Amino acid sequence: MKKLFLAVAIMGFVTTPLAANEPWGDMKTLEENVRKGTYGTVTSVLIMEDGKTVYEGYFNGADATTLHNTRSVTKTITGLAVGAAVDDGVMRMDTPAATFFTDIAPFENPDPRKFDVTIEDLITMTSVLECDDNDNFSRGTEARMHNVEDWASFFWDLPIRGYPGWMETPATAKYGRVFAYCSAGIEMAGWAVERATKTRFQDYVKTKFFDPMGIERFEWQENGLGQAHKSGGLSLTARGLAKFAEMQRSGGVYGGRRVLSAAWTAEAVKPRAVINAEAGTEYGYTWWLGGYEISDVQFKTYFMTGNGGNRVMIMPAHDLVVVITKTDFGQRGMHQKTNAFFEQEINARLARRAN
To answer: What are the residues facing 219 on neighbouring strands?
Structure first.
């Protein structure tokens, strides 16, 4: 196991001496729990409070330079790229997404409703196309998309989804949208950015985010056509992930420089669809929205999440950004163990401070 604690400014991160930062001063329990595998195979934990790094630890062979494959965390970054394109005035949320793909029309399973699918429908995972990664019978699963070369045709050739009587419809659902986890739709949103900006997606993200935020280490997976994997293929360091979250927490500003508009960052974390009503989980513009309780008080969270139990959490009421990276891909309980990490190592510490 490798652990690294920094006490100097590096790459824009300033780590304050831990003893001065209760409840983050003594992290022995966290480290012991990580060693025991309580939270799964953790490779990094990074905690920022009010813009300063108060804890940074690396485990299971990782260090500060490790590029973490956080899978669907990439979806949120693709959503941020949509925001940059909106800020640049080259697309709108109500733009019909199919207008960026007329070169591959006509689509199979023709239906005029395909041309009503907007950019907003794509980044809220609420389009009418039959695409659901969590349903093995869906024609639009991520696994099926990966098996073909042309992901754009794969998506736009899908049939219109049905709404059997036991399911909610857009007419009855809260926010007027029915959520279905659709990686292919996020790919189309990112591809629409590429076509709207006339810039390769990887280059656009680098110009808009990596360069102004000082992110030098990254790696994109690409499909067979050389296109960036926009729904799960970006690897970043723990610090790189934290920079995106800190920029969102600060209303689009990082290091005193505006990266995204305050308007976009505010709109991005407004609830647009319900993921799990019982758990109180909703969805914004590729941000997951949830909550936590400290001393009987409810607080909101915004987070990126990915296979393996990876999570990048913003806790705005406490000015916190928390990154946890893991490698438990496809394992049962991977997300539940990450939930336990937040309950035991973050929320419990906040509760002790409140009392």
So the answer is: 235
Q: Are 27 and 34 in contact (CB under 8 A)?
A: no
| Mean pLDDT to the nearest integer, 205-226 | 96
Pairwise CA distance, residues 250 & 175, whole Å: 26
Task: Report pLDDT for 21.
Answer: 53
> What residue has token string 């999440």?
305
Dihedral class, residue 12 (left if φ above 0, else alpha if ψ from -120 to 50, else beta): left
The Cα 180–Cα 200 span in angstroms is 28
Helix or strand (DSSP H, E) at 55: strand 52-58
The answer to whether residues 206 and 193 touch, using CB atoms and an 8 Å cutoff, is: no
For position 92, what pLDDT does the model report? 98
Q: What is the pLDDT of residue 196?
A: 98
Instruction: Confirm if 264 and 89 have CB atoms less than 8 A apart.
Output: no
Strand ranges of the sheet holding 68-69, from the earlier edge strand across to the other edge: 68-69, 234-236, 218-220
Q: Is the pLDDT of residue 169 over 90?
A: yes
Q: How far is CA 145 from the centre of its chain?
A: 20
Pairwise CA distance, residues 123 & 115, whole Å = 16
Question: Is residue 106 reached through a cis peptide bond, with omega within 30 degrees of 0 on the bond before it?
Answer: yes
Which amino acid is present at 87?
A: D
Judge whether 158 and 103 are in contact, CB under 8 Å: no
Q: Which amino acid is at 260?
A: L
